[in-house]
Amino acid sequence: MKHRHTISEYLLLKLEQLKVSHIFGVPGDFILGFNKNIENSPITFVNTCDEQGAGYASDAYARLHGFGVVCITYCVGGLKVTNTTAEAFAEKSPVLVISGSPGISEQKNNPMLHHKVNTFDTQKKIFDELTVASASITSPDTAFQEIDRVINAIIKYKQPGYIELPRDLVNVLGPKNYTPQPLDIEASDKDVLKEAIEESKALFQKAKHPVILAGVEIHRYNLQDSLNKLAEKYNIPIATTILGKSVISENRRLYAGVYMGSLASTSVQKFIEQSDCLLVLGAFMTDMNLGIFTGKFEKKSTIFSNFDRTSIGYHHYEQIYLKDYIRELTKSSLKKVTKVILPKKENIETTITMKDNKKITIKRLFEYLNTFIDKKMMVISDVGDSLFGSMALQTNARTEFMAPAYYASIGFAVPAAIGAQTASKESRPLVIVGDGAFQMTGQEIATIIRFNLNPIILLLNNKGYGTERPMMDGKFNDILNWKYHKLPEVYGEGLGIFVQTEGDLEKALLKAKNNTKTYSLLEIDLDKTDLSPALKRLTAELGSKI
Amino acid sequence: MKHRHTISEYLLLKLEQLKVSHIFGVPGDFILGFNKNIENSPITFVNTCDEQGAGYASDAYARLHGFGVVCITYCVGGLKVTNTTAEAFAEKSPVLVISGSPGISEQKNNPMLHHKVNTFDTQKKIFDELTVASASITSPDTAFQEIDRVINAIIKYKQPGYIELPRDLVNVLGPKNYTPQPLDIEASDKDVLKEAIEESKALFQKAKHPVILAGVEIHRYNLQDSLNKLAEKYNIPIATTILGKSVISENRRLYAGVYMGSLASTSVQKFIEQSDCLLVLGAFMTDMNLGIFTGKFEKKSTIFSNFDRTSIGYHHYEQIYLKDYIRELTKSSLKKVTKVILPKKENIETTITMKDNKKITIKRLFEYLNTFIDKKMMVISDVGDSLFGSMALQTNARTEFMAPAYYASIGFAVPAAIGAQTASKESRPLVIVGDGAFQMTGQEIATIIRFNLNPIILLLNNKGYGTERPMMDGKFNDILNWKYHKLPEVYGEGLGIFVQTEGDLEKALLKAKNNTKTYSLLEIDLDKTDLSPALKRLTAELGSKI
Fold it and tell me: Is this prediction's ipTM beyond 0.85?
């Protein structure tokens, strides 16, 4: 480094090097000094209505951009993003949490400062459980090293990290002549890799119907091109998990559909489970991905390759990285599949006639959306029928579908649209959110307005927690039925439309598409008992566990 | 116990014995079975829009009722109430967190179940940092004992506890012939108590101006009557801290005002700091209570007595309980103060003439509120000028003022009104909340409607984070200026009024008072730079630390 930097300058410099354009958060007195420095940097600070919104937005930003940042004050801010940090941890999203804290000099003699819970390190201990690396900056001498350590771990593991910055160290100079810590080199062990590739090859050569099941790590480690190369070279069909949906473009020749155990279409389920060589790449074996464990693989003919570990049959190889495994497998002259057989695809109509006075249903909504979504849109889905209905959507390019499909924290979608559109300015988010989720974080529309974004928000109003009704119903699943489409009058901007019929939907979506200057909020009035076919199957499985 | 109970029955029975009438939360699949059991019990389940709202509501309920409960699902629910649990911990509020979790049978072989973060005990480890006792129920044999242990600790320490309930144990029978664990007997050590009382008495006998400074523990341990008895018997004036505001009725003869270091009125500050025998009872020495440490006591003549510890001068007595200390001191024939001198009180007008076309200001608002508040109202204040302006309010009976005056987490007031009014049906909450705080949790008005509550909500709209502007201003302190008074049109119920002048305020408050069937939301349009005198002093102190 040519110039000597303050701790704040060094941290912001690192973020600029990572091409971070936006930081999400809410200001507070223990972080205000750093907030001012962000304002004076090239990075835009997006202050959301509540810290929860900032947490979700930074997670979404991280999923698209490769590195996200949420910046909040001590405890009253930090503890509001524990849930979103947990989401990023569970679903592998590289988010840096920067929290302000009382100055080192203020912490002497352990006084009772506002925002303090128990001891001064209570918040850090909590984030230790939710991150792959955490640091409480305590001295300018070690600050840069600590910042590097946390950021490098986030980049390596694609999981969150935590930096706590006492306010009296923000503008203090760090060490002279500091050499930044290099990223860990992720080198596979050659011998281990060789044996794993040989064994994989042998499995492939015997197989008649090899299939790839691709998961979210393909996206997180930016391996889409490598994956496509492998598949194209040997004509191997690719299905994805629900968490990995859209890691490959769904209109590609070899695309086989979304697999989710018995909750997927029967043809996709059979296709995956009857494969004589199933290559699971970068996918997590979660209950959601496996359709509440209704998915059953023949382990002997299955290869699981993840970030830093590969398993074949019942044995494991350590010290192999996914990227090396895919590259070497591509090089290793597998037998080319001569006749590609794909599962029967459900007919996706390219045009649909909507009936003017027919009550809109979940099923028809998603059918119509398939004709509506264009290449400039990305689908951001909340949990519940927003997610399960979306299984039937066909997306076009990479990373066009985003949902917390494993951790399943509701309230994700509206604030995620903020993170997604600031990360990818050319895309327009199509947000699909239930009324229950909207009541949690829907106020972040105010942030959408302030930062000039223009998502189209489809609010599926089924009057309560529709996913839970078939599992166990009671008054606890009812919520107040707002006139959601009137919210633009409160916020002073935006297009709000109430949709009751198929005809309404068609007209409203057209209006929304043309309303490019601001957001559109379509309140879609659904029957309380209306469920997508996938959700019906899912809740039957989930309900049996209660 | 006559009948053999399931774990759920036992837990609900304990809560009924504690006269818990309402439980706050949001349902989710890992807690649905228990939700159904609550629905079938005499306890009402209040489902809020977001878990954060339930957390704040349960804290407020606990402060008034003596025991509060928040009930949520695993991780995606639980981690959303970490901040409100931290608040309850810091400010001593007895809240029980009940979280659902995956069934014991589902946890075998460590599968990746939805809502799981890292390991199955991640959430419990986090709550270990935020509670005085926590239990993950793992067996019906120990379940009742564990429930008793956690509940007894909450009652003893008036701080939160945590119970994690795997869904497959909810309806499982516990042990036969179980004898509930008794509460710890809090007995002071007689010799220690005797010495402390003797030393205290000696200090009192020499003193000319003894004063009591009462804090929040007086309220939490229900010691208001004991305190009044002590003060009345010996004619000792009582001031309170800001966190303890309203632990004694502010129109009592011996009431001396709210002390807050140099942020209080000069006369109250002098009165406390120049006392030759200051008896600090149940108060925490927090930065807020001490006016950002501008408060300075002569330690030699100060007695601090808290829940289980008393200090005089520079030495400490352990194993003395506050209740015993107050009782014994009352018995010990102190010298009676013959001439009670109280600090000069600021004039509180009983009638005020509001000028029709004069722009409303913070100062005038609180002056007028002093003439408006009646005995049936309780003031619930959020953080910022809602709190500091409220210092000038005179409340009438016990526990009429509620605010997170130490932990200072914004967004408290609206959901707290739900907890407060369900705990104390005869009181009507007067909620004072800033626009920044309202954007965090204001949607809980929907919950207010569903449960037929009727608070009067004064929304102080100063267009952003007004408390932060004088410390350090920037775009990060700006938020979108909603048309808040139009929200009743979205929620379909309620009275919304826009207040710009003194005349508007007078009319609007009258309308609100008469609007008893539902809530009223008064949007009070303030100048962006309008600050209360107390906030001006505070932010000058706080700003110097950034």
Answer: yes
